[in-house]
Amino acid sequence: MTGDADADLAVELSRLAARHGAVSEQPATTDELLTAVTAFHDIARVAADLQGQAVRAAHDAGVSWAKIGALLGTSRQAVQQRFDPHYVRRDEPEGTSRILGPVTRAEEMHHLAEAGAQGWRLVLARHGEHVLERDDTAWEITRVSVFSARPMPSPAEGWQAAATRFPDCFYIRPARGDAGVVRGRK
Hints:
Number of domains: 2
Strand content: 15-25%
Low-confidence stretches: 182-186
Strand order of the largest sheet: 1-3-2
Distance between the termini: 47 Å
Radius of gyration: 20 Å
Oligomer: single chain
Mean pLDDT: 82
């Protein structure tokens, strides 16, 4: 985008935030400033989700990861890692990390479960994305909200805390059944 297009977009986004109660004509109070923070966070989250949908739709329609990466100013591999929920390099050595995202809270557990089954261990949770590290173990992953009446997973059942992202706590344990070893790896 050009500077003028960026400015026009900023004006439109500010108007959108104002319609959601984030801006008033009077000098801003602390509550109004915090409302603006929330409104712009929601706009960024929804925009990231829509961008992810657009990228996946373009790729599904035949546009290469390399072309999408060039449009976004990044490499083919970076754009594929970011937007392809099924991306797994089989030749990655243990200790290699990757970002899973953007993902919404509603879809993150599905993607984390798939990645865990493929030998990706959750090491950091953020809003909209997760940092995963490759190892030779298949992982089960569960999420518990601190606001839930449900007890936290028990270490006696093999669960260990992996990451937190308020209000959620993520726990992992080696997958049951095949001793947790990812098939096809040493």
